[in-house]
Every structure is written in C-alpha cells, then in structure tokens.
Amino acid sequence: MRREDSPPFAATTLMPLQNPVFRSIWTATQISSLGWLVQSVAIGWLMATISASDLMVALVQAASTLPAFFLSILAGAIADSFSRRGVMLAGHCLIALASTTLALAVGLGFVSPWLILGLGFLAGCGFALNDPAWHASVGDILEKREIPAAVTLMSVGYNIVRSVGPALGGVILAFLGPLAAFALAALSDLVPLSAVLRTKWQVRSSPLPRERMATAIHDGMRFTAISSEIRVAIVRATLFGLSSISILALLPLLVRDQLAGGPLVYGVLLAGFGTGAFVAGISNGYLRRIATQERLVTLASVACATCCLLLAVTSSVTVAAIALAIGGAGWVVTWTGTDVCVQLASPRWVVGRTLSIYYALTYGGMAAGSWIWGAVAQNYSLTWALEGAAVALLLVAAAGKVLPIRLWEESDQGAADFIPPELALTLRPRSGPIVVKVEYSIPEPNIEAFLRCMRERRRVQTRAGARNWTLQRNLQNPTLWTETFRTPTWTDYLRLNHRLTLADREVAERLAALQADGSSPHLALSIERSTSPASGSEVQPVPFVSRP
C-alpha cells in the first residue's frame, strides 16, 4: 500500500495526450460533451417551460442517468467479453440516434414532456454502454502508470467543456432557439462515432473460451463484493451521488422561481459549476500530495453541502455562481478519486465489470436523488429540498469515520503468466468438477504468519473463481495444512489461474517462504466422479500430484 501523503504515480496530467489513440477519442469526447451540455441546457429549460410539474423538471436528470443503473452491469460484462471498441460504437450510435430524433421532433413542432424523457432515457442507454467500455479501454490504450493522469484528464476535459457549454447553450437558446441547440448536439454526437471508427488499439486476448453472460456478471459481482477498496469506494460514491445531484436537478427551478432568471442565467450558473470543477481538476495532483484521499472526499462533501445551503438562502446570481463553483470543485474531486480507486484496484479481466457496477450504483443513486429532491421541492419547497440535501451531504462526509476510502495499492494488477500442469488424463473443457488441494508443511513458529497469509489467499482465490474454499489442519501431523477448493469445470480452473495477477502471486510466494526446510507446497488436482448407481460409473477421482 502506498503512503497516502505521496503522489501515486509520476505521470503528469498531460502525458496520456501523447498517445494518438487516446488523444483522438478524448478530443472527440470533449466535442460531443460540448454538444450534450448545450442540449442539456435546452432540455432543462424547455421542460421547465412546457411542464408545470417540478417533479417532471427534476426527472430530466433521472431519465439520462437511470439506464446506467439497469444496463451498466450487463454492459460491463459485454465489455469484458467482447470488443470494447465495438461496445463503444454501439453506445455512440444510440446517443446520436436520440439527439437526432429530438432535433427532428423540435423542428417539426412535435415535442412533449414524455418524449423528452423518453429520448433522454435512450441517450442514457448509449452512455450506459459506452462509459464502462471507454473507461476500461484506458488501461488497454495506456500504461498503468498513466491511468490516474488519464482519469483526471478525462474529468478536467469534461469540466473545461462544462465551464463553456452551459453558457454557450444559454446564448444559443436565448438568441437562436432550442432547435439550433438540438441540431448542434446531433452533429457533435457524430464526432466520437467517427473517432472510434478511425482508431484501433491492441487488447490482450484470452486463450480461453468466452464466458457466458450470466457467469461473467456473477463473477464481476463476486469480485466487487470481496474487494474492500472497491466496495467502500462504490458505497461512498453512491451516497454522494444521491445527495449531491440535488444541485443540478433543482437548478432550473432555482433559476425560474428564486432568481427569476432565464436561460442565459441558467447557462451562466452551470458555467460557474463547471469552472469550479475545472479548477479542482487541474489541482487534483497537488491536492493528493497534501491530503489523503479520504480527507479530500470528506472535504468535497462539505463543499457540496455549503453549495446547497448558499443556494437555499440566496437571491443573488453572483452568490449562486460562487456557490456552484464550490459545489463543482467538490463534485469533481469526489468522482475523480473514486473512479481512479476502482480502476486501479481492478485487474484487466474484470475492470469493465467493476466499473459498470460502480456506474450502475452511482447513477442509480443520482436518479433516485433527482426524484427524491424533486418530490420534496414539489410537496414542500425548494428551500426545504436544498437544505435537506445539505444535511445529507454532511452525513456522507461523516460516513468516512465508518467507511474510509483507502488509496489504491501500487502492486501490479496485470495478469501473471500461467502454464497449465500436465495431466495423466485427457480432459475436455467442460470436464469437472475439479477439486484442488494444496498441502503445506508449516513449522510451529510460522503458524501465525501462515494464517495471516491464508486469510489473504482465501480472498484472492475466491474473487478469482474458487468455490467452497477451506483450510484444514492434520490432526495426526499438526505441521501439515491443506488448502482445498473447487471449480465447476477444467476451463474454470484454467480461467481462475489466468485471472491471478502478479500481486496475487506474491501471496503464494510468501506462503512458500514459510514452508519447513525450504520445501515447496504440494498441489493435487482431482476430478469428482459420482459413485451412485444412476451414474453407471464406479470410477474414483484420479488425482494429479505436482512435483515438489
């Protein structure tokens, strides 16, 4: 584990831009984000003008984020099992289709609140497909040491656009009308589609057959549940999203009802939010050097709570813009920190699934938060909603005492080389179940250290696919210990070993160092055979025993 008061990697923020593939897709993504932000301003204001329901206005945010809750886990499994580039193309096609349809509907004068929400949902489906595949592809395109810089650069790039896009959207909306805003968005969505089509990158292929979708999803969820760093980051991010989305979801109502402004004011305030996020983004490396990740996330929640309180009491556009800049800074510090934590704690074989679970729960939290705070604003008041969100954000900050975010491990998450053992029997890929036994000879002085390593070994093996893991001590020879687990098939056994990273192999090396007389652990592989009459077979398991 790295010291949390030191910079995680030596890579500078701009280093990933030297890679032409990353640079091309990153640049195209910023252009698309500019169009999306212009469209978001137009959608938010259009909904506020054609619907008298405060809840419908707040649901604009929910419509685009809810698909990630339902689809991201499946999209992550698809991204880990199929071409991530192909998944990105499919996602961008859906986004472009939604934007083009909305532009045509506005141009033909056929627009309604439910149509806006429906097309927002369709675009959200595109984002649910694209985002896990794109973020997982960063580790394929770049070296591991460049990943923190790349994640920060992606966040900074979006927030540079956020500082310009909303204001531009307000100007276009005020002077050219919503049709121009939607047309610009539709054109900008074609840019990343073209960039992904033009570029290709090398991905390490697996020598094993592709997993079934149900198995891939199950394995991703199991890995995420067992990995404490990822689990804590997801919980904190979900709670933060549930509370902090109130800032963006209620902003159109704040402009319309409390500030008595128009689309230009709405765009300027969103630009203030983006400016604060941009400043925090470019300062991220410095902030990580002077404070722990947990301290940064806690302060970010306090900053967003301050933003909500200021918005609840002010009627000044200037004060609101300053408050939103504070909130934007807290927003980007939290999301960058949790995203990097999940990325670097995930091996390449499962990174698409862990990121998709992260996005599913955080976007689900934001969708639920949009509905909750919109309902509070409609049934009580806008002030009550903002003050309630501020209290919730302070509770999220306090949650760090129970669920602290730990900095990622520096150990290598790349796959270790694995050579399958030679067998005395010929097995088919679906042969199984396979029983694995590893026998250790541990002298009495090393037992405490051995048990500590075995707790880590159980976590490593289980999250890679081991079933029914147990550890037994021989009653007749207490120095002998046996680790036992199962895999459903021979292919699953091979897949488990291909999934083990270099960091995971270090646990096995520490266990080997604890062996008596410097000997090596003994590995025995068996295949289970039923002895029931119905099976028609009386064959006993035939083991393969490794050489010492």
Automatic annotation (TrEMBL):
Residues 528-538 have a biased composition (Polar residues). It comes from the Bacteria. It holds the Pfam family MFS_3. Keywords: Cell membrane, Membrane, Transmembrane, Transmembrane helix, Transport. Residues 21-412 form the Major facilitator superfamily (MFS) profile domain. The keyword Cell membrane applies. It is a multi-pass membrane protein. The chain crosses the membrane at residues 33-52, 58-79, 86-108, 171-197, 230-251, 263-284, 296-313, 319-345, 357-376, 382-403. This is MFS transporter.
